[in-house]
């Protein structure tokens, strides 16, 4: 059984993801993350200058601070 919350409200069952093609690599989400769970990758999306970010799901406390600060809508929860 795939343990996911279809409503996206069960904190224990959701995970946050960064779309690396949408992420411009500004790092604002990483600065706001209280768990230091967001790190830079080696991937630079076409048309972007900086490498994108990714979330270490083992460190993520699922607070949503990253989603609230991303102006580019690159972060979502599943």
Write the layout of secondary structure elements.
Elements: E1 16-18, H1 28-32, E2 38-40, E3 53-55, H2 65-69, E4 75-77
Antiparallel strand pairs: 1-4, 2-3
**Count of strand segments:** 4
Q: Report the major sheet.
A: 2 strands, antiparallel
Please provide the ordered H/E string of secondary-structure elements: EHEEHE
Number of domains: 1
Shape: globular
**Averaged pLDDT:** 91
Structural class: alpha+beta
Note poorly predicted spans.
none
CATH class: Alpha Beta
* Rg value: 13 Å
Strand content: 15-25%
Q: What is the fold-level CATH name, i.e. the topology? A: Alpha-Beta Plaits
Q: What is the correct CATH architecture?
A: 2-Layer Sandwich
| Helix residue percentage | 10-25%
Give the end-to-end Cα distance, rounded to a whole number of Å.
Answer: 16 Å
Main sheet strand line-up: 1-4
Q: Total helix count?
A: 2
How does this model look, in words?
The chain is of the alpha+beta class. It has a single domain, classed as 2-Layer Sandwich (Alpha-Beta Plaits). The protein has a two-stranded antiparallel ribbon. It starts with 15 loop residues before the first strand and ends with a strand. The mean pLDDT is 91.
Summarize the structure.
This protein is of the alpha+beta class.
Entry keywords:
78 residues, alpha+beta, Alpha-Beta Plaits, two-stranded antiparallel ribbon, 2 helices
